[in-house]
Specification:
Elements lengths: L6 H9 L1 H9 L6 E2 H8 L3 H13 L3 E6 L2 E6 L2 H16 L10 H7 L1 E3 L2 E3 L1 H12 L3 E4 L2 E4 L3 H5 L18 E4 L6 E4 H13 L3 E3 L6 E3 L1 H12 L11
Antiparallel strand pairs: 1-3, 2-3, 4-5, 6-7, 8-9, 10-11
């Protein structure tokens, strides 16, 4: 008998087109009803219940009852990480779907990846933090560097005060549209939360789009471009 993780079971669950669309819809970080997920998946409301039951049994999603309604959400950040990674691989291999429309460039510019900023602006945040020495690589992911306090101060974030819990402090997440990394983990979530609290950007309805105001994007880019001490040299 073979031992170890049963990746075939999880892969088969995610590989179903309807269930893949359900999981992709929940990457917005929002909890959605079964009827909303049926619409996102392009299936009948009578059919979605069986798909949700299978995903729930596998531990990929969980229900959130609210009054007379039942909402569904991704089980945790690790599931979101898996879905985003698959999106990145599909993009790298050319397995993409064409959805023309004016929103596509905006989604590539800035969107939510479960609870952190993704897209071009998310990648730029990651690269600026690394270049400034605010973050550095370790065996456990990314950890605060010598310039972390100064770098994140304009966002009102103190790395020492971020509550991690079961999550890692910070890690790289491969961005499916940019094919470079953006910030995830507790720090990534804190950065997006502060960007929204400051009014630099807002969420667009139930989509994954993060819409920066012109003034908010200017402030965000100024935050990234401001002079900082040189980053720490890579460890050998």
């Amino acid at each position: 008998m073979k031992t170890g993780p049963d990746i075939a079971r999880i892969a088969a669950l995610i590989g179903d087109p309807a269930r893949a669309n359900i999981l992709a819809a929940l990457m917005s970080g929002m909890a959605l009803t079964s009827s909303e997920l049926a619409e996102e998946a392009g299936i009948a409301p009578q059919t979605v219940a069986s798909h949700l039951a299978k995903l729930h049994e596998a531990g990929l999603i969980f229900p959130r009852p609210q009054g007379r309604h039942r909402y569904w959400a991704l089980a945790d950040a690790e599931v979101a990480r898996l879905i985003e990674s698959i999106m990145g691989l599909a993009t790298h291999l050319g397995a993409t779907r064409t959805r023309p429309g004016p929103r596509d460039p905006a989604m590539r510019r800035a969107r939510i990846c479960y609870d952190h900023l993704a897209g071009e602006l998310g990648v730029r945040l990651h690269e600026a933090a690394i270049a400034a020495g605010a973050l550095q690589a370790s065996a456990d992911g990314l950890v605060p560097g010598q310039s972390s306090a100064e770098f994140f101060a304009p966002l009102g974030i103190s790395c020492d005060e971020i509550t991690v819990g079961r999550r890692v402090f910070c890690r790289e997440c491969l961005d499916w549209s940019m094919r470079r990394s953006h910030l995830a983990g507790a720090l990534g979530a804190a950065c997006l939360s502060r960007i929204l609290d400051l009014g630099w950007a807002r969420r667009e309805g139930k989509s994954r789009l993060i819409a920066f105001t012109p003034e908010g994007e200017r402030r965000f880019l100024d935050f990234l471009r401001r002079p900082m001490p040189p980053g720490n040299p890579p460890s050998s």
